[in-house]
Amino acid sequence: MSIETVVEKQIECYNSQDIEGFARTYADDITVYIFPDNTITLSGKKALIERYTETFKKKMFADIKNRSIVGNKVIDWEIATNGLTGESTSLMAIYEIEDNLISKVWFIRE
């Protein structure tokens, strides 16, 4: 499976609020950071499931505006929209893939 396919599956599951499919795209030891200071905002699949179960209640939807691939990283410019309120935010996500799973994510927010 290509690294782009892994991230695309994750986005599809995010957009359909499929928490089980979403979680399957991540490594058990997933770590999520805020760029550039590398503050850890989430560590481990259990924490990921807890956070995104709440996130999915907002009917979130990610629209990928641009994608680049460098080595084992997929870099997406996303517009994330709250399906309940219509509020949107622009962000960059850098996904690091190891063994066909997302092992690290860095978010760059406005």
Q: How are the secondary structure elements laid out?
A:
Elements: H1 3-15, H2 19-24, E1 26-34, E2 39-43, H3 45-56, E3 61-70, E4 73-81, E5 88-98, E6 101-109
Order of helices and strands: HHEEHEEEE
- Helix-strand makeup class: alpha+beta
Helix content: 25-40%
Describe the sheet with the most strands.
Answer: 6 strands, mixed
Q: What is the residue-averaged pLDDT?
A: 96
Number of helices: 3
Gyration radius, rounded: 13 Å
What is the terminal-to-terminal distance? 32 Å
* Unreliable runs: none
Instruction: Classify the beta-strand content into a percent band.
Output: over 45%
Task: Walk me through what this model shows.
It is a single chain. The protein is α+β, with helices and mostly antiparallel strands. Strands 2-1-6-5-4-3 form a six-stranded mixed β-sheet. The longest helix has 13 residues.
Summarize the structure.
The chain is 28% helix and 48% strand.
Jot down its keywords.
110 residues, alpha+beta, six-stranded mixed β-sheet, globular
